[in-house]
Design goal:
The chain is globular and about 70 Å long. It is of the alpha+beta class. The protein has two domains: 206 residues, Beta Polymerase, domain 2; 129 residues, Poly(a)-polymerase, middle domain, CATH 1.10.1410.40. Helix 7 runs antiparallel to helix 8, helix 8 packs across helix 9 and helix 9 packs antiparallel against helix 12. It contains twelve helices and twelve strands. It is 36% helix and 19% strand. Strand 10 and strand 11 form a beta hairpin.
């Protein structure tokens, strides 16, 4: 159902690429629901990621944002105007050049540039873009076939487009995040917030969600049809609820194991042994107070997953760095490891 909705929304979003707003690309399903290991519990959130590209006459440039103290890397998206005079010389008179026509003529004959609509200063503003996207969904929803038998409610969210879709007693939430691609890689800067930290509206957080979703798709293509790797992760995340281990930590452990051993060993018959392997890996990582990030600095990623050059050879961030700083947190994590066994 959600995959069909993605296709419908992609069609609807296409109407929003007119004028000089960001061009919305095909939505990408990310996170547990689209990676195949969602517990499918009531109230699950299905997450889609929509890449943005610059409209005609504009260019996006990513700049590190070092002024914000949050985990991971943060960026700002600088919007610059580009000369489009060559289009007119080739007979395309559909737009005036923002750089070489007077402000008076531009204001009379052309829609405003992106700098005048969704930017704060020269930088693309996350919250203004989210409001525009929400307006787009509200305007286009009734054009979709889904609107005939589902009810849409837009939920409050300052950095995404979050909607609840219901049909009778069935109800689920879809959150649409958006961002800008780093070169031709599978790494983006995203509208997603850190949750616990304040983020200025011009700050975009680096995200590896698309790279991780592509890794799970790669595994699904390469693994035998009866592979139980997703069921292992599904059971593990349910079992570990209430412990100090985040879902992302457990997912990272499973991704490392999937990437370093034969995928043929994840069959139903191997289920118990793979669960033992996962818990052993987790225990060893907690004991060493070190769990490498799966994407950043990983030289063993499948060739089809592309990283920006500056992320390929760096030292992977340690997801357990806090355990080295906090002895109480380390003791709690060790107790949780024993409990999970």
């Amino acid at each position: 159902t959600v995959t069909l909705l993605m296709d419908d929304f992609a069609h609807a979003f296409g109407h929003g690429s007119n004028h000089f707003y960001p061009v919305l690309q095909q939505a990408i399903g990310v996170d547990s629901a689209f990676e195949g290991w969602s517990p499918r519990a009531e109230g699950a959130v299905y997450c889609m990621f929509v890449p943005l590209s610059a409209p005609a006459g504009h260019a996006f440039h990513l700049e590190p944002d070092t002024g914000v103290k949050t985990p991971g890397r943060n960026f700002r998206v600088r919007v610059e105007l580009e000369c489009t005079c060559a289009r007119g010389q080739l007979g395309d008179n559909s737009m005036l050049c923002f750089l070489h026509h007077s402000k008076e003529e531009l204001s009379r004959k052309q829609e405003p540039s992106l700098l005048d609509t969704l930017c704060t200063g020269p930088y693309l503003d996350v919250e203004k873009t989210a409001r525009w996207l929400n307006q787009l969904v509200r305007a286009d929803w009734l054009l979709l076939p889904q609107s005939y038998h589902r009810h849409l409610i837009l939920l409050p969210s300052s950095r995404s487009c979050k909607m609840q879709l219901s049909k009778g007693k069935e109800s689920f939430v879809v959150e649409v995040l958006f961002g800008v691609q780093q070169g031709d890689s599978d790494v983006f800067v995203s509208s997603q917030s850190t949750g616990a930290h304040f983020m200025p509206s011009t700050t975009w957080r680096e995200t590896y969600a698309v790279a991780e979703a592509n890794f799970f798709r790669h595994v699904a293509r390469q693994a035998p049809q009866d592979s139980w790797h997703c069921r292992c992760l599904q059971l593990l995340t349910c079992t570990a609820m209430g412990t100090s281990f985040s879902t992302y930590t457990l997912k990272t452990v499973v991704m490392h194991l999937l990437n370093t051993g034969p995928l043929s060993r994840w069959s139903r018959a191997d289920f118990l042994q793979r669960m033992v392997d996962i818990l052993d890996y987790l225990h060893c990582s907690v004991d060493k107070k070190c769990l490498d990030h799966f994407v950043v600095g990983n030289q063993r990623l499948p060739g089809e997953i592309s990283l920006p050059p500056d992320l390929q050879k760096v030292e992977p961030p340690n997801l357990f760095q806090h355990l080295a700083r906090d002895p109480d947190a380390h003791r709690e994590a060790m107790r949780d490891c024993i409990r999970l066994r």
